[in-house]
Amino acid sequence: MATTTTRQPGSDVGPDGRVPDELVAAYREHGFVRVRGVLEPGRIERFRAGAEAFLRAHRAESLETRGVFSQLVNVWRQDRTLRELTLDRRLGRIAEQLAGFPLRLWHDQMLVKEPHNNAATEFHQDRPYWPHAGDRLPLSAWIALVDVPPERGCMTFLPGTQHRTGLRPQDLHREEDLFEMDPSLRWIPRVTVPLRAGDCTFHSGYTGHMALPNRTDQARFAHVVIYMDEATRYSGTEHIVTDPLGLAVGAGLDGDAFPRPWA
Questions:
Q1: How far apart are CA 233 and CA 135, in angstroms?
Q2: Which uninterrupted H or E stretch holds 35?
C-alpha cells in the first residue's frame, strides 16, 4: 500500500518521517534515489554556516585528495552543530526504510569542492574501501548544503550496480579504473542528479558513482552520513576510523563509536 501522508511542497518526506513506497522501490531497484526537502530552509542555513566554520578551523586536517575535494571525517565527534545533522533521527529512519534492516552509523564526512576546482571525482564504489565483514548493503546519505547543479559538482550514478561486488578499491583520480576492472559497466546508462540545498541522495555502498567538477564561483558543501548494517563486523583491514580503536578481527562495529540514535 502506498504511503499517503501529507508532505510539505518540495519535500518527499512525510510528517511521520517516511518517504513514499515508490522511492523505496526505486532505491532497491537502482541502488540510489533522490529525496527532496530532507532539511527545512532554516536548518539548511544553520548547517551550511556550521560546515563553513568547521572547514575554516580544520582545513589543515583534510585527507589528501590531490585537489579534487576537501574531506573531513567523523566531524560529528568534533562539532555540536554538525553532530545534530549526522545523528538526525529522521535521516536515520529514512535510511532504515530504504535499506529494510537495522543500521548503525559508520562515519560521517564533509566533502567540499572548492570554487573552480575543475577536477572530477571519478567513478568508484564506496564499500571496497571499508573494513567491513558479514554485512548487507550499506548506504550513504549525501546531503546538499548548497544548491548543487551539474556545474557545481553533483553526482552521476550507474543504476543497478549495487549488486556488483568483489572489486578492489578504485582510484578516484583515474577515469578508467572502475571500467578497466569491469568493462561491462561502461555501457550502463548514467544518471546525473542535481540537488537543491536540503535535498539528499541515498546510494548503496556498491553503486558506482562519480562527482562532476566544480566550475562555479561557490564552494560545493556536501555532508555525507554513512550507515552500515547493524550486524557489520570488523574485517581487520586498515581504515582511519577503526585504526585507533584497537579492534580484534571479527569484532562488532557497535557501541558509542557507531550509534543508532534513530532507533
A1: 7
A2: strand 32-35
pLDDT single digits (tens) 166-214: 999 999 999 999 999 999 999 999 999 999 999 999 999 999 999 999 9
Residue 141 pLDDT exceeds 80:
yes
Cα(135)–Cα(121) distance, rounded to whole angstroms?
Answer: 26
Burial, 178: exposed, middle or buried (Cβ in 10 Å; 0-12, 13-18, 19+)? buried
Distance in angstroms (rounded) separating the CA atoms of residues 213 and 81: 28
pTM: 0.95
Q: Please report which helix (H) or strand (E) contains residue 103, including its range.
A: strand 103-113
Q: Which residues contact 59 (CB under 8 A, 6 or more apart)?
A: 70
Grid cell locating 144 = 546538499
| CATH number of this structure's domain 21-237 | 2.60.120.620
Q: What is the DSSP string of 209-255?
A: EEE----SSS-EEEEEEEEEETT-EE-S---TTTGGGTPPTT-B--S
Q: What is the pLDDT of residues 5-35, one digit of tens each?
A: 566 778 999 988 899 999 999 999 999 999 9
Q: Which residue has the higher pLDDT, 5 or 149?
A: 149
For range 242-258, the mean pLDDT: 97
Cα separation, 21 vs 6, whole angstroms: 14
Location of C-alpha cell 545534530: 84
Q: Is 226 exposed, middle or buried (0-12, 13-18, 19+ CB in 10 A)?
A: buried
| 33 three-class SS | strand
Q: Are 103 and 114 in contact (CB under 8 A)?
A: no
C-alpha–C-alpha distance, residues 37 and 233, integer Å? 33
